[in-house]
């Protein structure tokens, strides 16, 4: 759990420095950390080829998938969610 927090802190630090992170994600303002951690866990379960270890890039990828940044993308593309 604290591992996810560390990745988020690192990301926010990069953003505040004006550095573009390799994988950008935008968490909702009041998102509880456990919700973010669950999103990461679900992503890792779906992508088991990543192996048993959790690397910071895969956490960032998971958060980027769960909470993508909408600001840079104009609303031209329509995303269809396949359940």
List the helices and strands and how they pair.
Blueprint: H1 2-17, H2 33-46, H3 56-66
Helix pairs in contact: 2-3
Q: Indicate the proportion of strand residues.
A: under 5%
The SS-based structural class is mainly alpha
Overall shape: it is: globular
Number of helices: 3
Stretches where pLDDT falls below 50 for ≥5 residues? none
**What fraction, in percent, of the residue positions are helical?**
40-55%
**Over all CA atoms, what is the radius of gyration?**
13 Å
End-to-end distance: 27 Å
| Assembly state | single chain
* Most strands sheet: none
**Helix and strand run:** HHH
Mean pLDDT: 75
Q: What is the total number of structural domains?
A: 1
Count of strand segments: 0
Key traits:
83 residues, mainly alpha, 3 helices, globular
Describe the protein.
- This protein has 83 residues and is mainly α.
- It has one domain.
- The protein contains 3 helices and no strands.
- It has helices spanning 2-17, 33-46, 56-66.
- Helix 2 packs across helix 3 (56-66).
- The relative contact order is 0.20.
- The model has no long low-confidence stretch (mean pLDDT 75).
Concise structural overview:
The chain has 83 residues and is mainly α.
